[in-house]
Amino acid sequence: MEKKIVAIRYYNVWFYLHVNSEQDMVKISYLTDRIDAGEQMVMKDIYQWCQGHGIKYNSKFVYRKEFSIWVNLWNLYSYVRAKKK
Questions:
Q1: Which sign, positive or negative, has the C-alpha torsion 72, 77, 56, 33?
Q2: Of the four, 42, 50, 51, 72, which is 20 to 30 A from 32 by CA?
Q3: Domain count, the chain
């Protein structure tokens, strides 16, 4: 299978999930279906889900102009805190 990357956005954070097999794609499809269905998730849940299912990922914080400076700072703080755990 050709390697692919699936991007998921959580507020200011982009998660780039690496698809290395059909099994990875099935797992990621399950996660995206849960998110699309409106299941409440926080950033920590996405990190833990990827680690628990053996999905390799990268994440990146992106400043969003449509959010206030305070919201961006809070989201950056949450992002840094979650990455350290």
A1: negative
A2: 72
A3: 1
- Could you list the residue range(s) of the whole structural domain that residue 42 is in? 4-84
Distance of CA 74 to CAs 45, 67, 81, Å? 18, 11, 10
- Sign of CA pseudo-dihedral 15, 7, 24, 56: negative
Asked whether the beta carbons of 24 and 33 are under 8 A apart, the reply is no
- Give one DSSP letter per residue of 20-50, joined into a string: -SHHHHHHHHHHHHHHHTT----HHHHHHHH
If one counts every other C-beta atom within 10 angstroms of the C-beta of residue 62, the result is 12
Distance CA 28, CA 52 (A): 12
How far is it, in rounded angstroms, from Cα 71 to Cα 78? 10
Residue 82 predicted with pLDDT over 90: no
Which tens digit of pLDDT belongs to each residue from 20-67? 999 999 999 999 999 999 999 999 999 999 999 999 999 999 999 999
